[in-house]
Amino acid sequence: MKNTCHVLFSNPESQRCNIRNVIFGIESLLSQLKRKDPNAAIEKIVLGNDFQLQLKVSEKITGVNYNGLTEAKQEGLIATCLLTENSSVAFVIQQLRGLIRKLSPWLLQKGWYPVKSITFQDGVLSIERTEHIMTIEKLRKIKFPGQSAYKLLLIDASSMLCEGYFATTKNDTEVQPNAAGFYTNGVYAMTRKLLWLLRDHQPTHLGMCWDVSRESLFRRKLYPDYKGLRDEKPVALQEQFGTAQILFERMGIPQLRVEGYEADDLVGTLSYRWTEEVGDPCYIVSSDHDLYQLLNESVSILQNKREQQKMLYTKADFMKEFSIEPRQWIDVKSLLGESGKNSDNIPGVKGVGEEGAFPLIRKYGSIEELYNCIHELEGTPLKRYIKPLLRDHELAVLSKKLVRIVIDVPDLQHLQLDDLRIKIDKAAMIKEFTALGFHTILSEIKEGRYRTSDHREGTSVEKIS
Question: SUPFAM superfamilies, per this entry (predicted)?
Fold first, then answer.
């Protein structure tokens, strides 16, 4: 239905219905509404018995903006927002965004909360959570001789989706929605990549880590220009975040995001906890070099480039390439900074490039020790860096705060690592692939394209085909 925006929530009686996937659903609905005329009217709103929320938009009628009317609110275990017929698309978008803000504090707060009820009555959409979080049995580790019991795959999901989108389109105007009106090229590429990863690496545990809006990042509060040079994502890409999150949620793939923190911070926290509590291999899927600082004997990076012969990048590879410890990558980047349209826009120390940053950190170990001993640079080939280092001392300290990946995100400290165990819902996967028009992937699964002959412990595509 061309003029209908809709989202299918999970039934609150099922284990799938929790605060996380409700937020994903609302974001999908927002993506659809953003494609409509903001002044158009919401002609009809229906929440069916199957928990599908439908909003019929009439662009022939100008909607009402109820300025000053009550915003979304949260009282006790219930969060609500106002969705009234004949209101404008812009007003409904405002209400739904407010509802997400009310739900977000419950997202991954000491685990996650199941949803008790979803109702729509008298123009009010209500989401009620349970009083207690989901309880999951702690990870029991059983090792076999010469074999790791578990393997964790951590995916920078936001980056992976963006790469999939730009790899499959040269021009934003060429991107066409599917029969249901959804853009899916980035989700399609991301899904295939995920299936390759499951086939080739057979993880037992998986975490897909998502970014949040830049405005909410704690780094923005430290430095308002953080990531300030980046363009807005194309609309066709923005809409696919909700589509991807709902798809993987329904497949049973663990997904994580925490307000104020980037995907890198979630990856950092989970990889650190995995190293400390489990000690088995952890693979990070990302092309972001900032994640080099997380490398250790257990943690390696699967570089997001299929054509590379050696995809797995280890601590040993890093030390061979740069002759520093992974933790010192933070200090090098604090001196180098980052500039450019697609960078994080880190100030760094102007005048100190790679030819200076690496020798300085190799010699002194950290920027703190470098500044403590800066007088020692007199009479050495590195003395030319004294002036810029002293001039930009405060920027170097600030840059280190921006570059350092958080390894103790508060909302993830209570998460049981076994929450990340992979349990693919085959029936839901087939249903979602069919609905999205991923017919080629379905055929490839039937043909055994993603099947492995290796029968190690783990979750392989063989088990879902």
Answer: 5' to 3' exonuclease, C-terminal subdomain, PIN domain-like
When comparing pLDDT for 63 and 107, which is higher?
63
* 462 to 342, 420, 450: CA distances (angstroms): 38, 19, 7
* DSSP sequence for 220-259: HHH-TTTTTTPPPPPHHHHHHHHHHHHHHHHHT--EE--T
Instruction: Pull the structure tokens for residue 143.
Output: 């090792």
Q: Supply 233's token pair.
A: 């994502």
Question: In whole angstroms, how far apart are CA 396 and each of 208, 256, 289?
Answer: 32, 31, 19
Cβ neighbours around 49 below 10 Å, total: 6
Residues of the chain with pLDDT > 90, as a percent, come to 60
pTM of the model: 0.76
Q: Which helix (DSSP H) or strand (DSSP E) does residue 198 occupy?
A: helix 185-201
**Per the structure block, which two tokens stand in for 346?**
């880190």
Phi/psi for 350 (5° steps) reads -65, 130
d(CA 383, CA 363): 13
With beta carbons less than 8 A apart as the criterion, state whether 175 and 122 touch.
no
Cβ 348 vs Cβ 338: under 8 Å: yes
Q: Which residue has the tokens 């049995």?
A: 137
Residue 394 near residue 348 (C-beta atoms within 8 A) = no
Cα–Cα distance list, 75 to 72, 80, 102 (Å): 10, 9, 10
Question: What number of other Cβ atoms are within 10 A of residue 437's Cβ?
Answer: 15
State the pairing for strand pair 255-256/282-285.
Answer: unpaired
Grouping H, G, I as helix, E, B as strand and the rest as coil, residue 386 is helix
Measured from the Cβ of residue 258, the count of other Cβ atoms closer than 10 Å reads 23
Output the six-digit token pair for 314.
């280890």
The structural domains of the chain, with segments of one domain joined by +, span: 4-129, 152-323+407-464
Q: Is the pLDDT of residue 287 over 80?
A: yes
152-323+407-464: in CATH 3.40.50.1010: yes
